[in-house]
């Protein structure tokens, strides 16, 4: 890295510093962190999922599986046995500084709801979607519908702005950001809006008031 201001060595100002440790914020830091975490998990008998490199699992002696999901520096551990979960937490503490947040209630914008009587787990994004409505100024201005996109509702390129006035109107609207925000909900908990999102995303390069 370049020598920091006020800490440059006299007559060696053009020299670079060799880092002994990756610092937070550098381009290579996330990669170095993942390599360290991956090495630790593999050494402790965990297998990296071939479908998602941030999912690790291990089969226990009783035939059950323990799963660990990693997102940057957030970890979610799932297993029926709390004893085994505590063992994994203890192992992680020997290598990493950790803060135990207890039972998972929220992960990546998704709320986790449990019904222990029925033995079910639900994922919702109620708060995330409410924030989206508020962010784009449509909270309280929309009506619920039975389907995300009615069959008679058609979108086309003819709805794109054709005058300077209409262009100026759409410049003030974050159309692409809104579609992107809904895409995240679609991927996580709302596959029912997939078709609607695929339709509106076709016009992100030149969206009009009708598309919005």
Can you walk through the features of this model?
The protein has 212 residues and is an alpha+beta fold. The chain folds into 2 domains: 29-102, TATA-Binding Protein (2-Layer Sandwich); 126-203, no CATH class. It contains 6 helices and 7 strands. The strands form 2 sheets. Strands 1-2-3-4 form a 4-stranded antiparallel sheet, with helices on one face. A 3-stranded antiparallel sheet has the order 5-6-7. The two termini are 46 Å apart. The model has no long low-confidence stretch (mean pLDDT 88).
| Oligomer status | single chain
Which percent band covers the strand fraction? 15-25%
Question: How many beta-strand elements?
Answer: 7
Largest beta-sheet characterization: 4 strands, antiparallel
Structural class: alpha+beta
* DSSP helical segment count: 6
Give the tally of structural domains.
2
Low-pLDDT runs of 5+ residues are: none
What gap, in angstroms, lies between the N and C termini? Answer: 46 Å
If strands are numbered along the chain, what order do they take across the biggest sheet? 1-2-3-4
State the share of residues found in helices, binned by percent.
25-40%
Give the arrangement of secondary structure elements.
Layout lengths: L28 H15 L3 E2 L6 E5 L5 E7 L2 E5 L3 H14 L10 E2 L2 E6 L4 E5 L1 H10 L28 H8 L3 H14 L5 H7 L12
Antiparallel strand pairs: 1-2, 2-3, 3-4, 5-6, 6-7
Short description:
The protein has six helices and seven strands, in the order H-E-E-E-E-H-E-E-E-H-H-H-H. By secondary structure, the protein is α+β, with helices and mostly antiparallel strands. The protein has a four-stranded antiparallel β-sheet, covered by helices on one side.
